[in-house]
Amino acid sequence: MIVKEFWALLRDKRGRIVLFVPSLLQLFVFGFAATLEVKNFDVGVLDQSGGRAAIELTSQLAGSPAVRRVVRLGSMQEVRAAIDNREVIAALVLQPDFDATIARGGTASVGVILDGRRSNAAQIVGGYLQRIAASTGAVLRPQLRQPPGESITVNWFNPNLTYLWFTLPGLIAIISVVSGISVTAQSVARERELGSFDQLMVSPLRVPEILAGKMAPPIAVGLINGTIYLLAAKLVLGVPFTGSVLLFYLSLLMFLIALVGVGMFISAASSTQQQAFLGAFLVAVPVILLSGYASPIDNMPGWLQTISLANPARWFLELAVGLFLKAMPASEVFARIVPLMLIAAVTLSLGAWLFRARME
Amino acid sequence: MQAFNRRRVAAMIGKEARQIIRDPSTLLIAMVLPLMLIFLFGYAVSLDTARTRVGLALESDSAPALGLAQAYQRSRWFDVRMARSVAPLRPLLVAGRIHAIIVIPTDFGQRQARDGGAPIQIIADGSLPQTAAFAAAYAEGVRASWARAEATGGLRHPRPAIDLAARFWFNPELKSHYFLVPGAIAIVMTMVGTLLTALVVAREWERGTMEAIMATPVSMAEFLASKLIPYFVLGLLSMTLCALAAVFAFGVPFRGSPLALLLIGSAFLMPALGQGLLISAATKNQFVASQIALISAFLPSFLLSGFLFEISSMPAPIRALTWLVPARYLIPSLQTVFVAGDIWPLFLRDIAAMLAFGALFFALTFRVTRRRLD
Fold first, then answer.
1. Residue B53 forms contact with A (CB below 8 Å)
2. Residues from chain B contacting residue A107 (CB–CB below 8 Å)
3. Global pTM?
4. What local confidence, expressed as pLDDT, does residue B374 receive?
5. Which of A181, B156, B184, B349 falls 20 to 30 Å from A262 in CA-CA distance?
6. Which chain A residues contact residue B345 at CB under 8 A?
């Protein structure tokens, strides 16, 4: 039975390619794309002063590694158009008395207009500009001494805050959700649509055997994808893996079982492949969005944080990040595997129950 | 090619529309998914950081150290857990129960008294880079403003040369759902346009009803039109639903004109539907079509469109790749029509790009389907 299911999945050459190649492609494309850093942006400058201090500020801007291009703007109309058309994310407006004020020893106020349509990126850009303004100020007025102090920041587990180190373990969770749920969901629906499901029912196989046969391939696919990711992350992309490999596989297995249970439930509930696929999608999207990958769980309202406790992806994401970067000790790992097992037990029994109910 | 027979097309559209209405899953995707996504992006996916849980290792008993510790406890950015040293806080950081440790060192009091300022140490959880950067920046901010308050009355600092006064146009309160919710609309339209279409036409091939249609006098153009028009209408309906929910349930402003939104949405549906048709015609298998649609349409519109992640921050090869994602042209226009207003130069540029992609996908679909007919 299990062999037959593997054949069904792997029979189609394109189906085979679709299961494995994209996961590698995703690893590289989306791994690098998913960054919340902001760099390489264009800034506009409307310089109505034109003195030494203004030129110093502009050249400090142009010299900053995060800024790609400094666009000179001639008037407020041009500032407006550059922001409106998204040519620049921010524009500095230097008043005509900018140089005079600084020469007098006063504080020159510079207006910064930021594109609030991209409020998150704009805030980060605003922070960069503040720092550039402060360092320009220090150049212009060397006697200005910062009060001593300033904190020393150390980042444990990921010293340079490389975003990829967080993205990759997260992608293992995402790809498992997408393929785990959708492959399972379509397996039963496909047989039903093609009519081969009836043959299965008259065969001497018992329901648990059929279920096991349906569950094995998606779990195997998930484990293989997980292995590919693990190897690629460590060997190609240099993401450290500090935890126990054995515990990683145990977590992945529990996670996949929980997902397959969800997929089985959808599969049993739908009568066509289209329904199964769309149903899988409808479930996969909130599972991914509430996992903490796209935005921190701490930012969600309290009741949604409670709901996210039932989300297997949330637990697995913590496990994956912990095992990759934080050398998570076994006690912490098991504290997360237990909820994952509970979720798996619930989804599996629901899936099996509906499957049985639909067979009769 | 045969003439475009309007009556025939109308009959086919009728058939397609009945199929859509009969199958609850289609309506589920077109109506429930939009609302669910808007809801999730309105509530769940928030980039507006709430209080960050941090540990505070207070190694010094001096008055300034206690004063600074109090400043952290009062801060609205942090939820502070106190300890006498780093050791008991370390496992909490590993477990993810706190996201940073602020260390006020033993010599803090002496140095503060001697130099008028003393450093502290911030240990952030680098496994969550975004939270780590945030925690470090705000922890330093709290220390700096505490130090300034301490210093007033004592030393007078010279005034800084430049002061930046930041103004955020369009979204002065910096609400992240102002840009997330329009982004969710793009995802919904990709779903309806590409995924649904890919599945539906692939099903015709898989079940063999495609050959039956080909044996009838219906021409290829008529067939494609009859497939497209119902999903086009469905796509616009979902978009309207999303827009209404965004504005009335989540208070996202709508400063542009409905006409502009309609034009932008219609323009995007061209490449979306074209891509769906192309995938289905090329694969002829529902399972493969669905997986390819997921990977080539859904994930890129989520990750490569500039909706969550800034395109300019991506490495150059991936930045080049984003030019091929139709959703990349939809997101700026959608965000603009909601929060900024009608900025036609921007809209027209994006609409032209989307229509060009649409034309390309349709041309390819024609080629693929025609070849199979011979």
1. yes
2. 159-163
3. 0.80
4. 45
5. B184
6. 84-85
